[in-house]
Amino acid sequence: MLKAFLYKGFTGLLALLVLFSTVSFTIEKHFCGDVLVDVSVFVEADKCEMEALELLQKKTCCKDEMNVVQGQDELTLASYDDLEFEQQQFLYAFTHSYIFGLENLPKQKIPHKNYSPPKLVTDIQVLDQVFII
């Protein structure tokens, strides 16, 4: 059960890693003077009230800044034949030891499992007055 849980967890983690490495998004910031007014991801940032007044005056103190975070466009797929011989050897040895190294040990028989010791009637050492000093 633990092995299946770890397998599903690592598989999901790798899928999310591939997903987030290929996603592109835009971060838009709106500044009024030197003050940050709004930050938004994926949509346009809200403008401040000063922007409407500045359209009439043609003098602007507001500015918009856009940061585009590019994801990977292409994912390269490498085959087993593209690896060097030493890498192929290591991959084979690692896979073999992982698959066959985690086998369960056979259950061993315990011959004295159901043995109950005899009841102690008297303490022989006290009876004979023999003590180890």
Biggest β-sheet description: 3 strands, antiparallel
Low-confidence stretches: none
Order of helices and strands: HEEHEHH
* C-alpha geometry: elongated
Distance between the termini: 54 Å
Which whole number gives the mean pLDDT? 83
Overall strand count: 3
Spatial strand order of the main sheet: 2-1-3
**Estimated structural class:** alpha+beta
**Strand coverage percent:** 15-25%
Radius of gyration: 37 Å
Percent helix range = 25-40%
Instruction: Quickly count the helices.
Output: 4
Description:
With 133 residues, this protein is α+β, with helices and mostly antiparallel strands. It is built from four helices and three strands; from the N terminus they run αββαβαα. It has a three-stranded antiparallel sheet with strand order 2-1-3. Strand 1 (25-32) and strand 2 form a beta hairpin. The longest helix is centred in the first third of the chain and has 21 residues, at 2-22. The mean pLDDT is 83.
Summarize the structure.
This protein has 133 residues and is of the alpha+beta class. Helices cover 39% and strands 17% of the residues.
